[in-house]
Specification:
- By secondary structure, the chain is of the alpha+beta class.
- The protein has one domain: Creatinase/methionine aminopeptidase superfamily (Creatine Amidinohydrolase, Alpha-Beta Complex).
- It is built from four helices and 17 strands.
- Helix 3 runs antiparallel to helix 4 (154-167).
- The model has no long low-confidence stretch (mean pLDDT 97).
- The structure holds 2-amino-4-trifluoromethylsulfanyl-butyric acid and cobalt (II) ion (2 copies).
- One cobalt (II) ion binds next to loops.
Amino acid sequence: MEETRGRITRDGIRIYEDADFAGMREAGRVAAAILDMVAPLVAPGVTTAAIDDFIREEIGRRGVVSATIGYKGYKHASCISVNHVVCHGIPGPKILGDGDILNVDVTVIVDGWFGDTSRMYVAGALPRKSERLIEVTHEGLMRGIAAVKPGNTFGDIGFAIQSFVEANRMSVVRDFCGHGLGRVFHAPPNVLHYGRPGTGPVLEEGMFFTIEPMVNLGRPETKVLSDDWTAVTRDKSLSAQFEHAVGVTATGCEIFTLSPAGKFHPTWG
Ligand code: MF3
Ligand code: CO
Ligand code: CO
């Protein structure tokens, strides 16, 4: 559908209107509510395909649409990225083991608006090293979000994330980034999770985008497997990711994908 309202910045970023926040709020809420329902399913012995089946069925029960089924040939209602998988893990027969950590990423379309969010889960007992990785990744995302306000730049967001992650001797993945979204899944800008203060496009009220840092315990390099989707750490170190969709407000930002049940972090709720 051609958009007729709003404007586009010099950097190609769409500025949405006040009324559009309601659409994103609902799409984000639905995506986050589905991720809330995933939490009790995750346990040793469960396959990632079973988790994806549940998500597909729940999307149907809610009468909304999966944004990933059919997207560039992708066939699943979620991406499930276990241990050293960085992102875009394909659900399948893999059985979760005790201490595995996984990111589940869901995007739904509700009344034409895209709700995109991901978070970490743990099967069984959480090893201390993995707990630290998850904690730093989550805090990195929240520090990036804290930098979202009109007049700041996208480089300020990246710097907030990178400086925190590297101070904790972990690394930020460079090969994947966040993105604008709204009535489309992926739009300008590329939201980098690293950068220098004051660089990049200036944030304006009405911009909608995701922040979704991937953090590795080892080196930042990744490679994509022969299935053309699964991205893994080259050094096989553990990787974690959290993703929120946000909208820039007059004074800061609104997070569209907050957990209705307060379960966003795996050791909460
Ligand atoms: N949800 C992912 C993102 O955060 C995109 C997944 S595309 C898929 O942008 F095709 F792999 F599902
Ligand atoms: Co995204
Ligand atoms: Co996503």
